[in-house]
Amino acid sequence: MDKATHLRNYAIYLKFVQGELDKLFDKQKEYLCCDKGCGKCCKGGQFHYSEIEMMYLLTGYMKLDSEKQALIDERIKKILEDKKNFKGETFKYDCPFLIDEACCVYEYRGVICRSFGLMIQDPTGKINVPFCAYEGLSYSKVLDTETNEIDEEKVKQGNYKEKPLGFNAGYNYLTSEEYSKGFDVEFKNKKPMIEWYMVE
Ligand code: SF4
Ligand code: SF4
User: Which structural domain range is residue 120 located in?
Assistant: First the structure.
């Protein structure tokens, strides 16, 4: 498949995913704190991207003004240097596309950036709450931080309209062959965003 066709297919798939995620976010809006200006989940992470997601993200980068591009280039260079000197197990960094606490390539961001914030139910049935629940943000009002589970009592007392739910909307599922069937998009290799900038 040529690159242009692949990007076109991906854009169609992304529109579909966004529509589905919007419904889930809407269902859980009483519990969410994802206001503009909260860039916490764009910091200190790995941000897994596949090649097609990265290509699309770079389409957004190409539309930025040269000042922003230069800032991002500089940040990427610095992150790569830090990575080279890093001795621990999991290298984490702030996303270079976060400028003034907002994503400067918002329309082009990848799937992980779109699904983050929801509670995710993994294939074993375990429900994972977003890290920010422990920092007074999404789901924090109904979370029992000792058991790491939703506190039904707090939900009852809060008079919420909807239940707090865990969805099968994790990054790996949304970018699986099963989920993306029919869109003709190849995700293949997924790795931390910064690794796409590493010269082999
Ligand atoms: S998921 Fe959490 S950290 Fe991210 S924008 Fe929403 S409230 Fe902020
Ligand atoms: S691409 Fe945008 S949404 Fe995704 S981590 Fe970076 S700044 Fe955040």
Answer: 3-197
